[in-house]
């Protein structure tokens, strides 16, 4: 079990996905599950609904991570929402959903079920602190806000989505504050996590760093 935590845009997803591929592990993208839950809230118009209504809707929903053909697809009630959950409207609305302790309880149970008896690279905000506190290796990734904003800007531009760069930087800064200051499962480095600053680093450098640390920790590495 390898966990990779860190703020938005630090490189968690790309690194976790590639590390999992090379090791033959399952890639557990917890953020995709929270995004799917947020998309559900938006589709049902529940943004201002009482907490119990939100929790009930998400508890009844089927949020699945499908790995057919080694490609991650996010399914919400059997509908492929892989692209939709990455849109700016979901990003703008995710904070209160992700901060809700009852919603987190539901999704944490789903995450642990996915990882049961499976070699996993799990990425998110609280994988090493809350969801999988006994992981063999815990990585905490960081990067400058400017670099993280540039990564997100390029990601959206590649999808034909135009955003204001300065606004994106402000949005990321605000999300950092929300993630770090929430009462339940805040974003923080586990005491036994290894920090990886990805500012100026290539994807290959990030992947090699994690794999080398995994070898040092005795994580099974395929020949």
- Tally of separate helices: 9
The CATH class label is: Alpha Beta
Which spans of ≥5 residues are poorly predicted at pLDDT below 50? none
Percentage of residues in strands: 5-15%
Gyration radius, to the nearest Å? 17 Å
| Secondary-structure element pattern, one letter each | EHEHHEEEHHEHEHHEH
The CATH homology group name: P-loop containing nucleotide triphosphate hydrolases
Could you explain how this protein is built, in words?
The chain has one domain (2-213): P-loop containing nucleotide triphosphate hydrolases (Rossmann fold, 3-Layer(aba) Sandwich). It is 51% helix and 15% strand. The protein has 9 helices and 8 strands. It has helices at 12-23, 30-43, 51-60, 88-99, 101-115, 127-131, 145-158, 165-181, 203-216; strands at residues 2-5, 26-29, 63-66, 73-76, 79-80, 120-124, 137-142, 194-197. A 5-stranded parallel beta sheet has the order 2-6-1-7-8, with helices on both faces. A hairpin with a 6-residue loop joins strand 3 (63-66) and strand 4.
């Amino acid at each position: 079990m390898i966990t990779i935590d860190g703020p938005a845009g630090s490189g968690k997803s790309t690194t976790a996905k590639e590390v999992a591929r090379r090791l033959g592990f399952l890639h557990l993208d917890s953020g995709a599950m929270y995004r799917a839950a947020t998309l559900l809230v938006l589709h049902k118009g529940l943004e201002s609904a009482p907490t119990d209504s939100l929790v009930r809707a998400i508890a009844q929903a089927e949020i699945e991570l499908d790995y057919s053909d080694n490609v991650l697809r996010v399914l919400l009630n059997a509908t492929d929402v892989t692209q939709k959950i990455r849109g700016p409207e979901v990003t703008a609305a995710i904070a209160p959903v992700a901060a809700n302790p009852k919603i987190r309880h539901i999704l944490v149970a789903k995450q642990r079920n996915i990882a049961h008896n499976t070699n996993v690279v799990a990425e998110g905000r609280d994988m090493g602190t809350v969801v999988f506190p006994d992981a063999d290796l815990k990585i905490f990734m960081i990067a400058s806000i400017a670099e993280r904003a540039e990564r997100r800007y390029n990601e959206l531009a590649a999808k034909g989505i135009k955003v204001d760069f300065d606004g994106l930087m402000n949005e990321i800064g605000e999300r950092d504050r929300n993630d770090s200051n929430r009462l339940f499962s805040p974003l923080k480095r586990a005491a036994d996590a290894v920090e990886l600053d990805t500012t100026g680093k290539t994807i290959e450098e990030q992947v090699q760093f994690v794999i080398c640390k995994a070898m040092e920790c005795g994580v099974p590495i395929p020949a």
